[in-house]
Each structure stands twice: as C-alpha cells, then as structure tokens.
C-alpha cells in the first residue's frame, strides 16, 4: 500500500513552512494551557467574544447544533470512514493512513490535554482544548494536504490552500462551540493549534515510515536477485 508510486501526504514544498507553523502552534497550545490551567472562568478575550457569539437563536442555533454533531461519534465516524474510502478509491493509501492516524492522534491529544490542563466550563466540564475543533480542523487538514500535492501547487499557493481550509473548518466548528456555550474562544484556538501541530507531525511520520518500508523492500529485492 505504501509502495514507490504512493505520493507523499506532506508535500515537500510545504515541509519547511508548515513545520515552522506547527512548532508555533504547539507553543501556543502550551502557553494557553499554562495560562488557563485549573481555571473555571473566561479570560478577558473570552468574555468579549463570548458576549457577541454566545446564545444565538434560530436558525443559527440549528446550524451550530448540526456542526456540533459532526464532532460527536455519530457524526465523526461516518465522516472519517467516507474520507478513508475516498482516499483508497483515489489510490492514496498514505492519505488513508493519515486520516485514521492523524485525526485519532489529534482528538486523543486534545483529550489528554484536557485532563492535564484542568480548565473547566459549566458544572466542571473539562474544556481546554476543544476536541470538536481539533477534530474538524484535523479532518480538513488531512484532506487539504494530499490535495495540495495532487494539484501540484507551489509553496505559496499550497500554504494558502491548506491554511484557508483549516481556518474555515476551525472557525466554523469554533463558532458553533462558543455559540452553544460548550467552550471558551481560547479553547477553540487551542483545539485548532493542536490539530495543526499534530497533523503536520503525523504526516511527516507517515511519509518517513512509508519511505523506509519502500527502501527495505527494494533492498530485499536486490538481494534476492543476487
């Protein structure tokens, strides 16, 4: 599945820029986690944004609830399965692996961070970072990265596409979470940054592992021919 013809999921043209951005995102996650550790109140920025977004009424509340459902198991699992099937139909095995590993790692990391940071909202519910935001951002990234390589986009155009897709997905789910009162805005930012850092690292790892497997198979083939 990860043979020589399998395209990389992390386009070479984006590795340096996306790597630097992922490192910055990881730093933001850590700084916000330290800042809001064991906190149970909104920060100054949270209060200002929440006052505008929180408590939306119909029909926007229905939109927010629909987006929120996409982050629940009943909505997220079919989405992931559909994307994996699409990757396999397009003969993108590395992308299929990235979908499962990347999205799983993003949500898992967000869940772990919630316990470590201990920030709460509404009756003690752990809130930082937003797992829903991390999920949808991660799913958007695992679609955008292979698409960038498939389209043959350069560094600037590729970064623009990846960031635009990630920002749109993160902003949509983030708005829904704040509007429903499930998360503070800084929780949303933490979830977005978590996905960006984790997906970039996972994509690099998937490519590196696949390349090593190809090299081993090639080496074994040469020894057999001798």
How would you describe the overall organization of this protein?
With 226 residues, the protein is mainly alpha-helical. The protein has helices spanning 15-35, 44-53, 60-70, 73-89, 93-117, 131-151, 155-179, 185-225, and strands spanning 120-121, 125-126. Strands 1-2 form a two-stranded antiparallel ribbon. α1 (15-35) crosses α8, α5 (93-117) crosses α8 and α6 (131-151) packs antiparallel against α7 (155-179). It starts with 14 loop residues before the first helix and ends with a helix.
User: Structural class of the secondary structure composition?
Assistant: mainly alpha
* Ends apart, CA distance between termini: 26 Å
Give the count of helical stretches.
8
Overall number of strands: 2
Give the helix/strand layout.
Layout: H1 15-35, H2 44-53, H3 60-70, H4 73-89, H5 93-117, E1 120-121, E2 125-126, H6 131-151, H7 155-179, H8 185-225
Antiparallel strand pairs: 1-2
Helix pairs in contact: 1-8, 3-7, 4-5, 5-6, 5-8, 6-7, 6-8, 7-8
């Amino acid at each position: 599945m990860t043979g020589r013809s399998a395209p990389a999921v992390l386009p070479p043209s984006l590795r340096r820029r996306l790597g630097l951005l992922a490192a910055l995102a990881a730093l933001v996650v850590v700084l916000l986690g330290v800042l809001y550790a064991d906190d149970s109140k909104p920060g100054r920025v949270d209060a200002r944004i929440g006052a505008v977004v929180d408590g939306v009424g119909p029909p926007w509340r229905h939109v927010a609830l629909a987006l929120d459902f996409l982050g629940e198991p009943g909505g997220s699992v079919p989405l992931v399965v559909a994307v994996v099937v699409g990757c396999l139909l397009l003969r993108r095995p590395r992308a299929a692996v990235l979908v499962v590993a990347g999205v799983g790692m993003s949500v898992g990391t967000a869940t772990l961070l919630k316990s470590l940071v201990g920030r709460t909202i509404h009756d003690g519910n752990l809130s930082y970072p937003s797992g829903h935001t991390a999920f949808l951002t991660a799913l958007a990234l695992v679609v955008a990265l292979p698409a960038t390589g498939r389209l043959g986009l350069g560094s600037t155009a590729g970064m623009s596409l990846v960031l635009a897709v990630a920002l749109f997905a993160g902003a949509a789910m983030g708005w829904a979470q704040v509007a429903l009162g499930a998360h503070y805005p800084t929780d949303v930012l933490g979830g977005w940054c978590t996905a960006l850092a984790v997906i970039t690292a996972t994509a690099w790892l998937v490519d590196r592992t696949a390349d090593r497997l190809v090299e081993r198979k090639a080496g074994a083939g040469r020894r057999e021919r001798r």
